[in-house]
Structures are given as C-alpha cells and as structure tokens.
Design goal:
homodimer; alpha/beta; Rossmann fold; 7-stranded mixed beta sheet; 3-stranded antiparallel beta sheet; 18 helices; elongated
Chain lengths: 403, 403
C-alpha cells in the first residue's frame, strides 16, 4: 500500500510524550522513524506506568502507546564513535526530532548547526516546555505544570474546589501535534524551495494557542473567567451547558433551545429561567434545578427523549465503556498489534482517514536497540563496523532479536 | 518574508471551530485561505460569545480568535451561479475544507467527487463529530459531548463531584490539528506523486487518540481509572501529583522524589508515606496532609523553595495573570492586530518557530464578504461577471470596504 511519507527518514532522539507522539503520527503515515535510545534503559517512559502494573508483566502502557511504527537503535550519545555513526546517518536523513531540556543536545554535539553542517537540507525540530531561553529556561516543563501556568486549570472545575487538571496529558499531546504541523510545513517548503530549517516548539505557547478564544475574550474584555459552583461545563457558558446526573450515570447537555429542554424534561418549573441573562447569571441554580429532573431518568431513556428532540447531548462514558460504544466499534477505533514480549497489545487506531494513503500500524513499539544491526546495515555500515560499535559499547543490540 | 505555504490555495467552507482553526494554522504559514461564507450572517461563530459581550461592541471573540489570515467571500451555496463560480475557482485551488454535518456538502453539489471532476489533484478534507456513517451519524458532534463520550470527562475531577469537562474547547482543537496533519501529509504526497485525495477527520477518534496512553492502560489492564477524592491531578497518578493551596493561591506539584518534597516543606510527618504503593493507595489522605503544609506559604515563597530543590512545580494562573507571566512576555505570546470595526484586537501569536519561514499574522479576521470582489477578480472573473453575481444575490460584498 502507498504510504504518504515513505521517503521521509527521521532520526528521533525524543523521549517521554511530546516527541514520541509526533514521530508516531509521522510513522503512521509511513515515515521511516529511527528511534535513538540510550543502551540499557532507553526512553524514560519505558519505566513509567499507571496502577503500578505492566503490559505483559514488563512493558509500559505509556511507552507502548506512543512508539509504534518505529525502529529502535541503541547508541551511547556521549561516545565519539556513536556520534560519528549518527552524523554519517544524518547525511541520508530528512528530519531530526528531540525534546531534551534546552541546550543538552547542543552540548553533546547534536545541535542544529552540527547536523546542518553535514546535511544543509535537514529539518531539525526541538520541543521544550517554555522555549529555549527566558526566565523559565531551567524550569522543568511537565504537562500538568503547563496546564496550571496557561490558565487552563484555573478555568476547570468548580469555584469551591481546587483548580482541576485534565485527566489525561494535554500540553504534551498538543505539543506533539504542533511538531507535526511544523515538520510537515517545513517538508513541503523543502520540496518547493530545497531548503531545510530549524523548528522550535514549546508546550506553553501551544497550550495558549489552544485556548485562543478564551484568551481573546479575557484580553479584550479585561475580565477573567470564573469557575461555576455546579456542573456547568465551561466557566464562560450559561446553563444548561454541562454534565447532569441520571438515575444510573451522567449525561452531557450542550447548547440547545432551553424551551425544548423544558418540554423534554416535562419540567414547567424550569420555564421561568428561559432568558439569556438569567441562564448565565443564575447558571448554578439552574444546573441544580435541571439535575433534579434528569436524575429521575435512566441514561438510556433520557438520551432517547433528548435525541428525538434534537437536543445536543451525549452519554458520559469511562474508557472501557467507550471501547464498547457502538460508534467506536463501527469506526474500528480500537485495534491491536503483536509485541515480542508483551504479546497482543490493544491500542487506538490512527484517527484520520486518507483515501489514497491511509495511515496504518506496521510495527510494534520496539525494544531498546531491537533494530540496531538492521538500521546500521541499511545506512551502509559494514558487518565489521557494526560489530566494532557494539563491542566498544557505542551501540547495543537488544537480546530479544538474537533469540 | 518567505512563507512556507504561499503557493497553497484553500477554499474554506468551514465554520465554528474545528475547520477554522485548521485553516488559520495553514494561513499563519502563508496559505491563501479563502473563507466561503453565506451572505449576511456568515460563519455561525460570529453570533456566539462569552459573558454576553462583544469586542469593539460587535465582534465575537470566538470568531476573531480562529479567522485571522483569511479573506472572506460571501456566496449563496444554493445558487447555481455561485456553484458555477466556486467550481471555476476550484480549478486553481489546492485544498477544500468543510465541516458541515455529514452529507450536507454532497447534497448541495460540493462533495469530493464534484471537486475531483473539475480538479483531480484537489485535496478535500471533511470534519465531523463521529465520522460520516454509523449509528451516531445524525447526532450533533459538539466538543463537550465528545469529551463525555471519549472517557475524558469521567477521568477528570473528583469522585464525589460530577465528571468535569475541560474549561476550554478540546475535541475541536484536536480535530483542527488532525486536519492540519492530514492536509499537510496529503500536500507532501501530492508534491511527490501528483495525486490529490479525500481526507476525513472526526472529533471522537481524535480525542481517543489524544488519550492513547490512558486507553492502552485501561484496555490491557482491564480496569478503568477512578477519579481521586482530592486535588490529585490525574486518576492514574500517585501523590503528590496535583494542585495544592497556598496562603494566597494554588501551585502544581508533579512527579519529584517525595523525600525532597518532605525536606522542602520541612514536614517530617509526611516522611512515613514515602513508598510507591502508599503514595498511590493513600493518595487522597497524602494530598490533604501536603496541603496543610503548602497553605502556610505564599505562592512566591513556596515556588522559590521548591524550584531551588528542582521539584517539578508551577504557579496556577488565570488567563489574565498568564498574560503577565514573565516567560509569556519574554516569548511574545500575546500580540494584536487591527480590525476594521473592532479596533485593536489582542490575541495569541503563532505558537511555533520556523527559522526560515516563520508564521506571522498578515490579515485581520475578515468581515463577511469583505473580499468578494477582490478574490473573484484574482480568480479571473471580469468586472461584469462580478457585478452579475452580486446583483443576482449569488454573491455579496461587505459594506465596510465600500466605505
């Protein structure tokens, strides 16, 4: 099958989430992603998990999630021989991706200029928390910290409780998509004009851009959002927008003519609230009044009534419930791949559809150095050169492949 | 200044958030984005706002946020003359973007096949809530509803309170970035292989992909996340990960050696918790114990102590506080543009940096039909043809330009 990016080779020095999700998205489109890891431990995400459990007893769900469609080469970045090997590989590479703290790659001899000297057409993309200079340059750039700094947390949750971080990574994934946006833009430009360039992406700017409509409102109106004192779903929105209890769960109700909702709930006591100023000003009181009605119905019955009246609504599902959702099943959103040590790994399929070049899963998330010999061979290293690198400790080949 | 996408012309039929954010990102990189709007009201987002206020008294912050770097042409899609004009424009266009409900564009004669007949190299990208077929095809695909269906809301907030939607759009912005990812991939492929194609992006699959590590954990471990009963910041994380009160606000504390935190807080009573199983199993009790200590310090003093010990932490800021943050100022993340009726509009600058082709803001968000004459002229329509379209009502030119 034709893959859109099959002629794009990426040297991927990234770890944790931002860089790996970005290169996985490019790998899903067929890019030749070569993940450069330190021998032994490899990507730090391999050591992190949820619930203190491991897939197949040994593998991190976090790592498995963001590293399919890549091959791993284990190289000691501090070894001059490894550096020489990487620079030789860079002659044939199109893109370099990295998300170490600012300055680290340059100090090790892997900065943009180092690569551009070898290959002026290289596209070099760095990810950081807050950019590569300025007062926060030495601060750790972790996802939840950026949620707090960017205004997102202060706008989420209820006024009487703490500001609430999202129950999933957020800044990192947006950062990954901004890397993809920038790298693909630069690849297109290179096709047309023959030039490579340096790209810098940071999590804070990305999460601010994500909240552009909230910022435009706050900056131009000169007032901040205030978290509601109820299940209203956005600090700038009026009732009914929010999550409501049912007899056996929760539903969401978004913007819909309020009159219609009053009819569907058979709740004439709510009719008096049907005024834009009241729906905003008394939103918490209205949320509680609506909730008294919604909790009389089981979710399925309430959803049926509301959908019949074209009210914008939905079920609130857990992840395992979502996996059983009829539309999720119809879309084929859940899939799996075989992994040499973890066995069958359930995961999420590529999210987008391209008629001529569909994204696919062709490779499992690799073991550290699973493809060291194979990759070096493809880049023209002789058997003897490969053995020399491995013997000296500059490179390492995973045990698993030898088995 | 060189712009990476200056030779890419986009006919943009999209409205509200997903499509407009996508085409704005492409416009920031120099694409020639032509926003096709209905005469009169235009994009529905022009009628929606926060706080019941309007920028400059008339303009929607939501619309202003997502529509810079575009020109607007007002055309009545149902008019055969307008359709003929659009198909003539399509001969010279590279990309079509739309996010009407599934089937609408096709019924009106603007489906992928209609454009491909005129221009086989066209790239046609549709956005929807849940894909274009399946059991939810007629359901409204609004952002918060997708948060509920995808498992995100159930994983956010506290166990004793309602599931919490994020205090910002989420699914739509991710959908926009997935459009950009797909369109740029298809443009690159077209450069290499000469073929256009059809792209389909939906919000539900995108938000599931965003939560890939949570899904990999849940699907492979066979257990769902449970919301904490405290300010712990992720349902799968152990203490201290979360938001904590200070004497005058809130701070975030992410993963750090617990021992170091005990020392910094001068809180020997916390030392007994320093065990991975306890930090997860008793996380809510530990959160409360830590909070008793953090609330003794003003935010600035606590941050200084924690950063000195390299604890991963950050301030929790509102949007207007974030605008005053020293790093945000250093990055130049807040900028503005002049708008013909709203005056000076403060907004967020492009989030990414490309050394040779930096994204920039070249145009204000347009009035409905502000560029109808100009755009038709550029596409080779004669003065007489343009007048004919306007006189018949197939097209409209905004008053403002005439002034």
């Amino acid at each position: 099958m034709t893959k859109a990016l099959s002629d794009v080779t990426i040297l991927d020095f990234s770890h944790l989430l931002q860089g790996p999700f970005a290169t996985q998205l490019l790998g899903d489109m067929g890019a030749n992603v070569i993940k450069v890891e330190r021998p032994g431990q490899g990507d730090l995400f391999r050591t992190m998990t949820f619930f203190n459990e491991w897939v197949g007893g040994t593998e991190s769900p976090n790592f498995l999630a963001w590293n399919r469609n890549k091959r791993s080469i284990a190289l000691d970045l501090k070894s001059p021989d490894a550096r020489a090997a990487l620079m030789r590989m860079a002659e044939r590479a199109d893109v370099v991706v990295q998300n170490f703290r600012p300055g680290v790659m340059k100090r090790l001899g892997y900065g943009y200029e180092d690569f551009a000297k070898i290959n002026p057409k290289i596209i070099y993309c760095s990810g950081s928390g807050y950019g590569e200079d300025g007062p926060y340059v030495t601060r750790p750039g972790q996802d939840m910290l950026i949620q707090g700094l960017s205004g997102l947390m202060a706008a989420t949750g209820q006024a009487d409780g703490p500001p609430v971080p999202v129950g999933a990574g957020f800044a990192d994934q947006i950062g990954a998509l901004n890397m993809v946006y920038s790298i693909l833009t630069a690849l297109y430009y290179r096709e047309r004009h023959g030039e490579g360039q340096e790209i810098k992406v940071n999590l804070l700017a990305g999460l601010m851009q994500h909240q552009m409509q909230e910022y435009v409102a706050v900056l131009n109106f000169g007032r901040d959002f205030e978290r509601p004192r109820s299940g209203i779903g956005h600090p700038g929105m009026e009732a009914p927008f929010g999550a409501y209890p049912t007899a056996d769960g929760w539903v969401t109700i978004a913007m819909s003519p309020f009159k219609k909702l009053v009819e569907v709930l058979e709740a004439p006591d709510l009719a008096a609230y049907d005024d834009p100023a009241i729906l905003y000003g008394q939103r918490d009181e209205i949320w509680r009044a609506i909730a008294e009605h919604t909790k009389k119905y089981p979710t399925a019955a309430l959803m049926e009534k509301m959908l019949a009246a074209d009210i914008w609504c939905g079920e609130v599902r857990t992840h395992s419930e979502a996996a059983q959702d009829p539309q999720v099943k119809h879309m084929g959103a859940i899939t799996s791949y075989e992994h040499p040590t973890a066995g069958n790994v359930k995961t999420i399929a590529p999210a987008v559809s391209l008629s001529k070049t569909p994204p696919t899963i062709e490779r499992h998330a690799p073991l550290v150095g699973e493809h060291t010999r194979e990759v070096l061979g493809e880049f023209g290293f002789s058997e003897g050169e490969i053995e020399g690198l491995i013997t000296s400790g500059a490179a390492a080949q995973a045990q698993a492949e030898a088995a």
